[in-house]
Specification:
Structural class: alpha+beta
Order of helices and strands: EHHEEEEEHEEHEEEEEHEE
CATH architecture of the largest domain: 2-Layer Sandwich
Distance between the termini: 60 Å
Shape: elongated
């Protein structure tokens, strides 16, 4: 079996903490593309626009291993091309990313509410990984797992690409103890503590996940820590990591997390720049045995939920 060669290093530096896009020119047995420019215009006509691609070629925005590409170069399958995308202006999330721990292998960050962990959709440069790459001068930094944009708290990032697999394996292998804190309504009719077991399904393109009959794939323990009037502070201990799992399980118990825009009802998206009602969910604790040095590690968030100030 023939192995695919390793792509060369990108000749373009990151921009605002974001890597350039890498394209590998495909085989062209029909001879459809005489030049590199022919292919790039056809390939990105829908996503970028033919006129914009042509302008980017004139501006020297596309780069190959040997330098700037003008588009007139003869087409050659297997050639690598890099370029930076143009991003729509993003509303800055006005909260800092805290650093709980940093060493030569990992960074444990305190991600604020509203900040995406990784570039996705409309949130590209306003993401935790992009900010940390810039602020810490760590261009190869990558997340070992993902924390929802609306959830605040601890997220683990890996400094060196060669270490990422072993730290990702902690999460995929369920060898990380994760503890969350949530604020929701207090209901004396909900018997706690309780371990919720259900099947959660999240469909692509549908904002909210749902529970359905079938094999259990989501397990969460829910405990009441404290009560203040009609509100409760809850400790949530997930054993699995389904999308929106804790939010779905709290909603299923009849005590949806405060300020949740999806559960129990999908609400209209807030206006850009509205940071007034953060979801009252915090990734409070990460605990694991380090897969490299074998040492026990435990980290606790320094953030607090706004509806339950300390």
């Amino acid at each position: 079996m023939r192995r695919r060669s390793t792509p060369p290093a990108a000749p373009l530096a990151q921009r605002n903490g974001i890597d350039p896009v890498r394209v590998r020119l495909p085989a062209d047995p029909e001879g459809a593309w005489a030049t590199v420019g022919d292919h790039l215009v056809g390939r990105f006509e829908g996503a970028i626009g033919a006129e914009r691609v042509a302008a980017m070629l004139r501006e020297g925005r596309f780069v190959g291993a040997q330098g700037v590409l003008r588009g007139t170069e003869g087409y050659r399958a297997g050639t690598y091309v890099w370029f930076h995308r143009d991003f729509e202006p993003e509303v800055p999330v006005p909260f800092e990313v805290g650093i709980v721990h940093r060493d030569e292998r990992i960074v444990i960050a305190d991600k604020p509410h509203f900040l995406a962990t990784t570039p996705r959709g409309r949130h590209i440069t306003e993401s935790a990984v992009a900010r940390l790459r810039r602020d810490l001068a760590l261009p190869t930094l990558q997340p070992a797992h993902r924390l929802d944009r609306l959830t605040a708290g601890l997220a683990l990032f890996v400094v060196r690409p060669e270490d990422r697999g072993v730290y990702q394996g902690l999460f995929s292998g369920r060898r990380v103890r994760k503890e969350y804190e949530a604020v929701a309504a207090y209901d004396p009719g909900v018997a706690l503590p309780v371990t919720v077991r259900s099947r959660i399904v999240k469909e692509r393109g549908v904002l909210a996940a749902r529970e359905e009959v079938g094999e259990v794939n989501a397990v969460s323990r829910v405990e009441l820590v404290e009560r203040r009037g009609g509100l409760g502070r809850y400790r949530l201990l997930p054993s699995t990591g389904r999308t929106h799992q804790l939010r779905v399980h709290m909603n299923g118990l009849g005590v949806p997390i405060l300020n949740d825009p999806l559960y129990p009802v999908v609400r209209p998206e807030s206006e850009p720049g509205d940071f007034s009602s953060p979801l009252q969910l915090l990734a409070r604790v990460l605990e694991f045995t380090d897969p490299v040095d074998g040492l026990p590690r435990r980290y606790e968030s320094r953030l607090a939920l706004s509806e339950w100030p300390t």
